[in-house]
Design a protein that fits this description.
alpha+beta; Translation Initiation Factor IF3; rod-shaped
């Protein structure tokens, strides 16, 4: 019986030792090198001012819908420079509305300000 007792106590000691060592085992730390990433956000619904066309006639109602009135103002003593700046402001407003073209209704130069106004239209998807 003493031999059996020694074997059982030894087995119990080995079991407790194995549990104790298993609880203290260290897992290797995995370090992932961080790579600088670039986030690209695409806004397909936003138009660029360069995408907006200026026209003199109202477009066909079957192909375009009215989205709003737009106006560009530019302070300038030079008419040509003022007209370019006012056109850029007008196109920016139209692009913000999502318009594809602007029918020019008004071009008014004065001594200090050039005003360009019109109606913005968006193409109807078929």
């Amino acid at each position: 019986m003493t031999t059996l007792r020694v074997v059982l106590v030894g087995a119990l000691a080995m079991f407790v030792g194995a549990l104790w060592l298993a609880g203290c085992a260290h897992h290797p730390t995995v370090t992932v090198a961080s790579v600088d990433q670039v986030r690209i956000t695409v806004h397909p619904w936003k138009k660029s001012p360069s995408d907006v066309r200026l026209v003199g006639k109202a477009p066909d109602a079957e192909h375009y819908r009215f989205v709003g009135r737009v106006a560009g103002r530019a302070p300038s003593s030079d008419f040509v420079e003022g007209a370019k700046d006012a056109e850029a402001a007008l196109k920016q407003q139209a692009a913000d509305l999502g318009a594809d073209l602007v029918k020019i209704d008004r071009l008014k130069p004065s001594r200090r300000v050039v005003l360009v106004g019109g109606r913005a239209y968006k193409a109807i998807a078929n």
